Amino acid sequence: MKAKNIKINKMIKPYIKRIVKLKFFRNFLCFIAANYIRLVYYSSSWELIGFEDPSRYIDNKKPFIIAFWHGRLLMLPFVWDKKKLLHLLISRHNDGELISKTVKYFGLRSVRGSTKKGGAEALRNMVRFLRSGDWVGISPDGPHGPRMEASEGIAHVSRLANVPIFPIVYSSNKFKTLNTWDRFLIPFPFCKGVFIWGDEISPPKSSSENDIEFTRKRVELELNKISTLADKKFIKFSKKNNE
User: Fold this and answer.
1) Would you say 215 and 167 are in contact if contact means Cβ atoms under 8 Å apart?
2) Which one, 13, 41, 74, 76, has least CB within 10 Å?
3) Can you tell me the distance from the alpha carbon of 79 to that of 46, in angstroms, rounded to the nearest whole number?
4) The whole model's pTM is what?
């Protein structure tokens, strides 16, 4: 019986791969994903913490970089006013295409590339957008990790555009963590959630290796700090519910 199932799986697998590659099917997946994100947000109770400083920058039309871990991307559209132009750095890989098409439903624009190898053109575009007064979002551990370790690309963009970085994270009390490199966190509908903005991180003072590394490390530490704060908030919540 087991051998028969293995044979059937081998026969079906090529057809599944073909279906997944179909443009219509991929567009349909993005449509479903966008509506799931809306369902989660509007059916749930969300708390916003630490938005005072980013809000002042936005009100004064001063651009900055939003930094977020790749695994905490899903709910990002709902921390942003779609009337303000936000460009997200999205990888050129297949999963990046799905993300790009999904966030488009929320008025977010995509710049295809990476903060790592082969991403020079994408980083130049991010700098150009910031200098023109727009805002950009970068996942410093994307597109393939290591998880929750920042690359130096975000520090270079910050220096070249001379703009600060504001980290952002979300968490919830009901969620599914995918078995992927980034441990992608998917909140469930009708949950309690929180968005936490971190402290402002100034651009590097110079292009020296030490200054770039200092900013890179600050981004990593601040993102990990607020990730821990957000998750701990719901560890406590779960304990209260179980008492």
Assistant:
1) no
2) 13
3) 10
4) 0.87
For the segment 40-87, what is each residue's pLDDT rounded down to a tens digit?
A: 999 999 999 999 999 999 999 999 999 999 999 999 999 998 888 899
Cβ atoms of 86 and 133 within 8 Å: the answer is: no
Residue 18 has pLDDT above 90, yes or no: no
- CA–CA gap between residue 222 and residue 105 (Å, rounded): 29
Spatial separation of the C-alpha atoms in residues 221 and 226, rounded to whole Å = 9
Q: Distance between CA 156 and CA 10 in Å, rounded?
A: 46
d(CA 226, CA 28): 34
**H or E element in which residue 175 lies:** strand 175-177
Residue 18: both structure tokens together:
């073909």
CB-based burial, 138-164: b 16+ in 10 Å, e otherwise: bbbbbbeeeebebbbbbbbbbbbbebb
Q: How far apart are CA 74 and CA 8, in angstroms?
A: 34
CB 46 within 8 A of CB 169: no
- DSSP string for 187-211: EPSS-EEEEEE---BPPPSSSSHHH
